[in-house]
Amino acid sequence: MDTAKALVADDKGLLAMDESDPTCNKRFAKLGIPQTVETRRAYRELIVTTPGLGESISGAILYDETIRQKKKDSTPFLKVLTDAGIIPGIKVDTGAKDLAAHPGEKITEGLDGLRDRLAEYFQMGARFAKWRAVIAVGDGLPSRSGLEANAHALARYATLCQEAGLVPIVEPEVLMDGDHTLEQCRAATEEVLRNVFIQLNCQRVLLEGMILKPNLVLPGLTCSQQASVDEVTDATVNCLLRTVPAAVPGIAFLSGGQSAELASARLNAMNVRFKSRLPWALAFSFARAIQQPTLEIWQGKEANVKAAQQALIHRARCNRAARRGEYTAAMER
Ligand code: 13P
Question: Would the CB of 127 count as within 6 Å of ligand 1?
Fold first, then answer.
């Protein structure tokens, strides 16, 4: 419970830097950055050594490769983060695979052997974990059985985390891909969250000791009718009020492919318009919306490290400001 509270305290948020090797390589490939263990390590060193990161970031989500890595001078990343006041976390699912007999739907794997892996990560110094379920919206999707299977896996994972002393970040992501409407996303997200909390209760998860990491309610990327910031924030907050118990200390949104600036603007609008009426903190747990500008500046080159770190700290500060309802477009200039 203390760790869960600390993760959303002081208007800070989480930095997701837990891209699996294939995902990290895909992002590197797009920018022509070599896809090697060393470039992935160098990039993560750039992130964890960014001066002042702990002023806006409460926790960083690592991956099995990165939690074992060190700076060039041999200091473990775990020590660098802890020294900066940042709580280390770890992604523990092993990825979303096709769900049998459910075309277009995925199930996240990783429960086998999870108890032993969690014990090792705790012993290494991790204090929270992450598991991501992905839910597609479309014709007849999500199916009830697909949605229940994912909610069940999330709940099994969450109880195992709490048994091991780790705060579970429970991430059911309704994807932005597709031409579905805002209303379809709202209906799917509401159904997903309802099922997730039913399963969390069934599996005896302590709500005070978890963080929810949901998507915003948004129209699909190729939907002809896009939504205003107010429409998105209304739909998102109403959906969460209907589904997320007040005992949960914090909701930390994923960015899901929104631009960095839009993600900050929407988080800001939610806090400006609703903060005083909400039982939980509305925070962030962004990967792309914090890292993308940094990666584009870095391009794998040592000479660009300082500028890339400045871009990272800028996004972290913008999102902390958004938690306070103090983010403005002028901050981007
Ligand atoms: P994005 O913010 O890029 O969606 O990533 C968040 C995350 O951790 C996905 O699991």
Answer: no
- b/e for 84-116, b at 16 or more Cβ within 10 A? bebbbbbbbbbebeebeeeeebbbbebbeebee
Query: Going by CA atoms, what residue is nearest to atom 5 of ligand 1?
Result: 287
CB of 289 within 6 A of ligand 1: the answer is yes
Per residue in 192-230, pLDDT (tens digit) is 999 999 999 999 999 999 999 999 999 999 999 999 999
Is the distance from CB of 203 to CB of 159 less than 8 angstroms? yes
Q: Note whether 311 and 298 are within 8 A (CB).
A: no
Give the per-residue pLDDT at 274.
98
Nearest atom, ligand 1, residue 286 CA: 2
What pTM does this model have? 0.98
In short, whether 218's Cβ falls inside 6 Å of ligand 1 is no
Q: Which atom of ligand 1 is nearest to the CA of 263?
A: 2
Expressed in angstroms and rounded, the spacing between residue 159 Cα and the centre of ligand 1 is: 22
In CATH, what class is 2-325?
alpha beta
Cα–Cα distance for residue pair 324/333, rounded to 1 Å: 19
Q: List, for residues 246-272, the tens digit of each pLDDT value.
A: 999 999 999 999 999 999 999 999 999
- The domains of the chain are located at 2-325
> Which residues carry out catalysis?
171, 213
